Give the backbone structure.
Amino acid sequence: MFTRVLDLAVLLLLGVVIILPRPDVMAKPALAIDESERDRVAELQTRLVQAPGDAEAALGLADIFLDARRPDWALSTLSDAILAHPADHRLAMRRSLALADHFQAHLAYESASRALALCRGGSSVPCGEGELSRLELLVSTLDRVKNIDMRQNPNAAKEQILKALRPTYIPPKRAAKKPTAPVTPPTPGH
């Protein structure tokens, strides 16, 4: 009886030693965002559990994931909403951004082109001039890199993206010169 208890204690101790991580292992959160954003993520995920096709919740959560450099999580978040709302240009645009961030230029171009076509006519959500301009810029930029493997040749992709964006230098505004009061010569005798 005593040997069985001792055997169980040794097995338990061995299990603890195997399961515990090494002392030099540092655990980090999978999503590096501030506390208020974590609460927002929890709220949006709860909404998506209740209604998987909720476009607003999917867009909000995808934006947070894209800002946190988690494009694969953004794609997963958007999938059910895109199935539920295939005519929403905003969902197609976010999918395009996530695919581009995931280095899948050709699929990102196709998704951005679909979003642009929906924005020009047929979107279930109104599309303003600002969104239309952003989508046109996104499509023209992705058109330049759609056939480049961004993982294998990031410099060529960067060069094409910079050509599409045509960066310009806008000098800072200079302070206007203050008019100086005319100097009057001293009058003789004073």
